[in-house]
Amino acid sequence: MGRAVTVATCALNQWALDFEGNLERIFRSIDIAKSKGARYRLGPELEICGYGCSDHYYESDTLLHSFQVLEKLLESPATQDIICDVGMPVLHRNVRYNCRVIFLNKKILLIRPKISLANAGNYRELRWFTPWSKARHVEEYFLPRIIQEVTGQETVPFGDAVLATKDTCLGAEICEELWAPNSPHIEMGLDGVEIFTNSSGSHHVLRKAHARVDLVNSATAKNGGIYILANQKGCDGDRLYYDGCAMISMNGETVAQGSQFSLDDVEVLVATLDLEDVRSYRAEISSRNLAASKVNPYPRVKVNFALSCPDDTAVPTCMPIQWRHHSPEEEISLGPACWLWDYLRRSKQAGFLLPLSGGIDSSATACIVYSMCHQVCLAVKNGNADVLADARRIVNDETYIPEDPREFCKRVFTTCYMASENSSQDTCHRAKLLAEQIGSYHINLNIDAAVKAVVGIFSVVTGRTPRFSVYGGSSRESLALQNVQARIRMVLAYLFAQLTLWARGMPGGLLVLGSANVDESLRGYLTKYDCSSADINPIGGISKTDLKNFIQYCIENFQLTALRSIMSAPPTAELEPLVDGQVAQTDEADMGMTYAELSIYGKLRKIAKAGPYSMFCKLINIWKEICTPREVAFKVKHFFRMYSVNRHKMTTLTPSYHAENYSPDDNRFDLRPFLYNTSWSWQFRCIDKQVNAL
């Protein structure tokens, strides 16, 4: 009868403009799909060139090389007898589209352009592509000559159509279209499409995975059908980590789940499903059938091919499964760790250097690197030859096998405690103990000589010597002296990153890791060009609250007992003089607000789009049990003054792993001025008027 269809989807670790590597990974996914009996293979969005090409999409080279890769795929025996669905940019009548190219046996069946483009937050697709606005309309696309020579076709269908095989009907969605209120799968399902496909370039955000899973399952819960989702995975060249989660769903239930975080460059999911289950599910939904009788039909591209076999009575089909979600602490442990591994191996460096202060932020960063080492050892143990080859190249040893995370950490991770006369013995001890427990190569040094030399130059030139406020100096003098210490640490971090391995008789250099959290960046509680200035920052998109929970997770799961004292210590920059040998400076006192308050300000400012007045109006209700309206007004004004005074620091913020939707990253996610009128006179006057009325 032909009712059991076998389909494959995948998560690929593609890299922007790495056409050779991208092609190899696509071929591997097709080989795996075919070896498991699949007759249809779906890949991620723009997988041929890599999703994150950005302004390279403007270049004709990107289009040319994409077609050259497509030529290799079309002419290869590996792509025979399986419908292949790949993503690439296509120029049609001088307009650039984000497309799926679907082919079978050296013939292109359909080029399907994206209808709804992602253009919020980190996405800028409207900058490079135009959405296809002609619903259920197909035009002729004239193929480039290199493709014509392989396919023997001069033109192929281009537009909003579906595929009709011998046994079923397939319709494509592309990423954002699943999230749109008028998703194409609604109308396609009413028109008899039984298999929906979605090729995505969807990045990780803490606590987001369930939303994607719920959307996929709900797509077929009301309308019936099979939904197949492919996604990019890994770091393809910027701040985002694409988190896989390839999946297959039927009639509102998940039947196959891919991993969210792994070091596997190629992951393929295959499922065999019964089309009659879709048909019987739809048969009893009378409201769906009434709507289907009035639907405007899609153009159908007939395909002389079946996804099922004629005699499939005894073929076992997949059953529903329960999706397992990671906790936020697990997400922090795994996502940034995988992102760091991709960055390390693709930058061809020999490891990382981290200024380890003994505080929560730098300790959390160290734990993420340690988690990366765990993931590498686990991948090698599970037979991942790619990870083994990368690890050997990084440590410059062709016979090396990473088996112990602490031993591997010693080879690729250097930590450095940079003491000053303002540092306490407690933080020095905590940093040393943590370094011992994770296995990093640890350095202790003192920066006082460098600080005195820099301040000495100023004194020689001006004839004046600045003093800390506790010794009678002004706040301006004290802040300048703190900043000198912080900036000296940045200079030394880069010096040691470049030359530490040289001094040890080893080749290569180290990437410098930053460790400023998302809340401190939002408030601007950091020195411009201090140790927050680094090559990359794995925690720059993570809140202090989540980092504390992550530290507790590491205590329990990695048995890092050194973290207990770090957790209990008050956060401090240790830039002001000690009082009786003890730290007198704390972060929250310096900032004039708590980290918990900062998270609330950040979410209201970015996610709720609240300016000073709207934030005040929301907080007088949220905090009505703990603050008077006048106190709320003071807090809101203080936050916006500090935020706007320090906004210029975001223009030089170290590239950070994107994990929170209230990130203040000025690069492209949070686009705002960096020179404000910091008095906010009109806005604050509106607040004062309400305070007086209340």
* Total number of strands: 20
| Arithmetic mean pLDDT | 94
* Apparent shape: globular
Q: Give the low-confidence spans.
A: none
Beta-strand portion reads 15-25%
Radius of gyration: 28 Å
CATH top level of the largest domain?
A: Alpha Beta
- Percent range of helical residues: 40-55%
What structural category characterises the helix and strand content?
A: alpha/beta
Number of helices: 24
Q: What report would you give on this structure?
A:
- By secondary structure, the protein is α/β, with parallel strands linked by helices.
- The protein folds into three domains: 4-302, 4-Layer Sandwich (Nitrilase/N-carbamoyl-D-aminoacid amidohydrolase), CATH 3.60.110; 328-446 and 493-577, Rossmann fold; 592-693.
- Helix content is 42%, strand content 17%.
- It has 24 helices and 20 strands.
- The strands form three sheets. Strands 1, 2, 3, 4, 5, 8, 9, 10, 11, 12, 13, 14, 15 and 16 form a 14-stranded mixed β-sheet that branches. A four-stranded parallel β-sheet has the order 19-18-17-20, sandwiched between helices.
- A hairpin with a 7-residue loop joins β11 (226-234) and β12 (242-243).
- The radius of gyration is 28 Å and the shape is globular.
- One of its GO terms (cellular component) is cytosol.
- Its EC number is 6.3.5.1.
